[in-house]
Amino acid sequence: MSAGGGRPAAGPSLSKLYVNAVAMAAKARLLRTAPVLTLPSRAAEVTGIRADPAKLTEFQHLMGQPARDVLPSGYVHALAFPVAMSVMVDDEFPLPLLGMIHLRNEVEHLAPIQYRQPLAVRAWARNLAGHRAGTQVEIVAEVRAAPDPAVVWRGVSTYLARGVFLPGLDKPGLDKHGLDRPATASAREGFDPPAATARWRLGVDTGRAYAAVSGDFNPIHLSVLSARMLGMRRSIAHGMYAASRVIEGIGSPKPDAFAWDISFGAPIFLPATVSLCVTDRSDDGGGWAGAGFVGWNASSARQHFSGSVRVLPA
Amino acid sequence: MTPRAPQPAPAALPRRAVVVGGNRIPFARAGGAYAKASNQDMLTAALDGLVARFGLQDETIGEVAAGAVLKHSRDFNLTREAVLGSALAPTTPAYDLQQACATGMEAVVGLSNKIRLGQIDSAIAGGVDSASDAPIAVSEGLRAILLDLNRAKTVRRRARILARLRPKDLSPDSPSTSEPRTGLSMGEHQALTTKQWNITRQAQDELALASHQNLAAAYDRGFFDDLITPYRGVARDNNLRADSTLAKLASLKPVFGKNLGAAATMTAGNSTPLTDGASTVLLASEEWATAHDLPMLATVVDGEAGAVDFVHGRDGLLMAPAFAVPRLLARNGLTLDDLDFVEIHEAFAGTVLATLAAWEDPDFGRDRLGLDGAFGTVDRGRLNVNGSSLAAGHPFAATGGRLVATLAKMLHDAGTVDGRPARGLISVCAAGGQGVVALLEASVQDA
Amino acid sequence: MRSRSAPGADSYTAFVNRGFGRVLARRLGLPRPAILRRYTPGAPLLAGPVLVVGVGAGADALAGALLAWQLDVRRHATPGERLAAIVVVLDELAHPDELSDPVRAAGASLRDLAGNGRVVTISRPAAADQAPAPAAARHAVDGILRSLAKELRAGSTANGLMLADGVAPDAPNTLGALRFLLSARSAFVDGQFLSVGTPGQAGAIDRARPLDGRVAVVTGAARGIGAAIARTLARDGAAVIAVDVPAAGDHLAAVANEIRGTALQVDITAADAGERILAHAAQRHGRLDIVVHNAGITRDKLLANMDAARWDSVIAVNIAAQLRINEALLASDLFTRSPRIVSVSSTSGIAGNRGQTNYAASKAGVIGMVKATAPLLAGRGGTVNAVAPGFIETEMTARIPFATREVARRLNSLQQGGKPADVAEAIAFLASDAAAGVTGNVLRVCGQNLVGQ
Hints:
Oligomer: heterotrimer
Number of domains of chain C: 2
CATH superfamily of the domain at 186-221 and 301-442 in chain B: Thiolase/Chalcone synthase
Distance between the termini of chain C: 31 Å
Number of strands of chain B: 14
Largest sheet of chain C: 7 strands, parallel
Order of helices and strands of chain B: EEHEHEHEHHHHHEEEHEHEHHHHEEEE
CATH class of the domain at 186-221 and 301-442 in chain B: Alpha Beta
Strand content of chain B: 15-25%
Radius of gyration of chain C: 22 Å
Largest sheet of chain B: 10 strands, mixed
Number of helices of chain B: 14
CATH architecture of the largest domain in chain C: 3-Layer(aba) Sandwich
Helix content of chain B: 25-40%
Radius of gyration of chain B: 22 Å
CATH class of the largest domain in chain C: Alpha Beta
Number of helices of chain C: 14
Shape of chain B: globular
CATH topology of the domain at 186-221 and 301-442 in chain B: Peroxisomal Thiolase, Chain A, domain 1
């Protein structure tokens, strides 16, 4: 893939990718093409991606943050997302894009990124593996801020293609990536929530609002109707909305280098009231070392997500 | 947070700032007697009462500073407009300030400092809030569309912008008392703190009852005769329940902290209601007060602001005074035992009790205040002796003025204690994890 | 002077004095109350000549004094010449036979008395230690004056001065009281006597601001008559401390701000009310010269149905509070420079009123208090007097049912209700140096109400 122009829009268009994905899914079902069992070998790469200051500002405001000149970690994910998507719609990609469930995200944010810096994003897939509910895959995205050749942001997103079982992959229960950790498992049964330190009241338009600032127009987030077309009873909040909002609210302003991770449990059906508990952690010297967090449905106590933020040595 | 080292006492300033007196309108529960009154109406009424009490008609005051927490955009010059509508001279400058529930306190402290510095000779500090006549804004969506529309140059562009309009954009946006960063209401935050410090329902109800009884007794003996001017047919704070009992308070259902596991303890009886009202305080240099034949009730000795990191629950939202008071007293070489009156704003009964508990806790004293042990104990016989916000109500920005005028009068009445001027402390917590506290002492003139 | 009309104001008087209403009232023989001339600063004392009737040194001296006021003085009437006032000097009466000439002389000129005219008699009080003939002559003036007042029309009034022995008709204190009775300030005072007990000393008088530099307390100043008193005292130059119960504080503040005074919220029945008033005056002014006890309440009930609350509260506010405050005043160093106390009584306290045993008790009590307090103040050059208003157009009387109100309003020689300002003018006079010779008096401001004296 060649270098785009000055904006992420010049990279792969997300809405076009979704249209392609729908077409491909239909084609696959109709033609009963033999399944692909391996990941594509090549990486997708786009350079010259720049943040749109207006969209950036909207993103920061949506997260309840002031419009700063450094990019929020979640916004870098949004900039890199079309490149990652382009990996998943590759003809050689073994799993259908639509209906893919976001299980987990791990990010290392290694240096502050100014919004004016042109970014190069490289993405590839790895670790195709079995899951008790289907097949999972990790999409890695690395971001460099020209002209420095060093990686400034690295994200690993784990997705699950529910109900897709590919021959020759690990059986459920033998998952080596810790995705079936007790916390996630208990999320399905509900858990004993701690005292909330914050609460989000999410309106039905939360999905559309995040789609507008991130460019992720996955139909399951946009409206009840579009979600129903894909088998959901209502629209759900973007996992990355929850991730970005909780990460942005912790340790502000951020240290120069930090890492965060989030595991998603029960989807957040909109509208929703989400309770959160953030627990700060101190280092030996009493300084801020990071925080753990968990979010759950304020009325049903079903866990929506949990994760952590930690300072990385500079 | 590492404890801040106490700053040196303020350098001896050329002169003192005294509280001449105050005036407020009775506080009224929201949606009631003042439902149709605006912030400007109430602040003007409070100012006019102050002018009448002290004969300040046509007087040019050095500065008037006041504010409102819930404010209309049209009130961009609220205090100045109130001054222009009052009996004060129109040559009196005025400005708005806002520090949430500490607005009135900050106005008093800031203006007192200007007086002490010699920049002004007289000042009126005030605050007003209407939870009834609260501003309602257009939705964020409609607002964005209207602003874009205003910027659009062509008809075509305007049409495209208008096409963005959705029905939901037309529903208005009411102000919220939730903390922006946590989405939790003040009551929910306090519920966390109340639980953290193990404050019992019984203790909260007892504090609420004392507040009502003390306020009612103060009214009955005429204490408020020269502190309040009636407004709109209300002559006493109408949240006051002189006949309240522990049994009645105990029968109320909890409203905050219901999903915190343990039994919820916070009720409408031991929390302040939404309230409308306004207050003012007349401050002056001793020279100005003397030249105008005005009384001097108390000296504003010192003030201190504080803030806590409440966002992830390290400290309670309303616990900033627990840190600010020790700093203020240390700077002035005082302890809690040196105070004759302690006024702790009763945002919730739990706020007062958690603050007292923190001061009595040796761990808190050592780990958070950097002391050798517990900070100290407040003699309950000196706490909010003429009632406080649980009974009077709490029109956010107006509470500071109520407290300062009330304490100044109490100090004046007490005169000297053990051969020194009577001393009093005011502690007001505020949204955003803030607090402003101040030290006053009786103004004892050399005979 | 403001001319706000209270709700239920006397629109009848206005009606019968204009256009069609005037014609109609004349044809039907309806009562036609006059529009009274009231005081406005700067207006002349009298709009025309004054006739001084009477022989003797007193009458001559008085005529001289009136000339010094720049008045157009006549010692003999010119038939047909419109007169603004007639002063009948009867200070040397020894026998009722001596009444005929001066009284009939005055009577002959009544036809020439202009509207809003003034008749003032100057005589001396009868006393038990006098010989019967002079006592009869002196007391006869009482009957003459009260009858004459009832004969006058078109807003004219007749009042009398009773001079103590030793007080000349041209003594400063006589002239001060006379000036009030001649002026528009006494518009609603009719058929009344003022006693002048001392001759007084001549001094410069600021006619525009007779109370300049004085500090005055007015209780019940938030509204009605009290607010009018506060306004009038302030107009006359006094610094006014407006006092009322805390519950009336908003109206009180408005009055205080209007007159550039101060508002003091205090319940006068509080044990320390006097001390609080004195403390306020000391703090703000360093002196106190005038106290007007105006605050009062009514709790009407036939005595058979009277409960303790009604009785006790009226007594507490209307008389007991005044007694307690006066005690504090008399004990204070502040209240020593020719102090003035004026208490508001009521015609109910003089004549009684059905359903008002409690109120009448308190208001009659005020009269008793005033008479007994006068000697206590005399030592420091002070005076204490009562003013007894009749039917005054206020928010309170506006609540009386229409028919009752209409009857009550006409039951006096002027056939109309008074205004709060009329009471206020009488009080301002009693508070001034001009009234230095008047103490222990009860001055009715009632348009010569038919009840009582």
